[in-house]
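Appendix B. Raw example, untouched.
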Amino acid sequence: MAPSPSPDHPGPNTAFRRIRGDLSPGEFSAAVRRAAREIGERVSCDARYIGRVESGEIRCPNYAYERVFKHMFPGYSLAELGFAPRDTVRGRRAREARRSVPAGGSTPGPEVDEFGGRDEHTHSDEESDVLRRAFMTSGPAAALAATLPRGSASAAPRRVGGSEVQTVEEAVRQIRLLDDKHGADGLYQRAGHWLRNAYAMLEDGAYSQPVADRLHASSGELAISVGWLAHDSGRHGEARSHYAEALATARMAGDPALEAHAFCNTSFLARDDNRPREAVLAAQAAQQAAARLGSARLLSLLALREAGGWAGLGDRGACERALLRAQRLYGHGAADCDPEWMTFYGEAEMAGLEAQCWSRLGDYRRAAAHARRGVALQDPHFTRNIALYSAELAGDLAAGGEPDESAKAGCRALELLGERVKSSRIQGMLDVAARALRPYRRRSAVGAFFNGYVAKHAV
């Protein structure tokens, strides 16, 4: 077994990656959930959690995960599973260790607490940029470039196999991880470069039919990820193009899961582009594609996408019916067939999307209640979404005539945008809140919000 990362020099958990073997992160996370049920534990393991373990972000699992892993791998210690000793990563001790580092000395990397979650200490914009560059110039992205077929069009195609496809799949996962924490603005251009590389591999490579199926699916998912980065950074025309590219790939490959995902994002973009009729139709097309996949959670999200379109059309009755359908389907629970990309979709996201529906319908009191719930329920890992729901809450409260509470929510969103998250979409939501708060600038809470708003973004 490879030694686990030391406290001062954390790195990828290669031991855990070897243990996963040929299973995909989604398949392995399903096995973890099954093992948990066998011993009466409850863990919400998904492919993203496995990615965080293997990247070294989670350096020691919480006690529930430890029991599950030891059930799955009898006789293995935490060290043999690639984890660091628990007492070296507990939040309090890790912070003390960081404070004890002399000036100019090396500092430990980001730590996790004993529950497998990151300590929420401040990250500067510079640190966030370093993290983004670290992914874009190494790891999956660099490996993706190395797999590309070389030479002229007349040269013999380069053989593409499972390892090459895996680089595309890992690139998708890493882009999603970075977007969850930092938003889209700093990622889009480089991610688009790797998308072009993936499609060049698809066009110029030589591969078997099973590899072709995986390569189409992973390239399409990468197109959707890049499209989302374009969407979130305000490049709606480019987002629409990427989603159309993913949809064409899905249709050519006969892949209903990819088709449902592409239509899902197309619906969301149409809603934000004030094309509510298209949002409804795209969401309905997504539901038709997803009907054969067996995932109630996916159908729940797609019902929310449809509800957003109906809200934009001002059809309260149709919106309420879609919301009720989304809640009923969500209540069926998670399943192993839920798509890997849906790890963001939980009660917090559901509350946030419902808040946006009520806001479009002009029911700001109800919208604020759901946005407040979204902020309270969100996993700290999803920093971008906390900023999003806080900005949504600020706008709803401002429109509903509650300026002081709106300003406090706006300050929370500004704090996250300034430290860790770069998202033109969230910034635009704060701009709307700021315009609604202008008449109340003499209030102390609102004045504090505008001080931060003007300093960082300019009115």
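End of appendix B.
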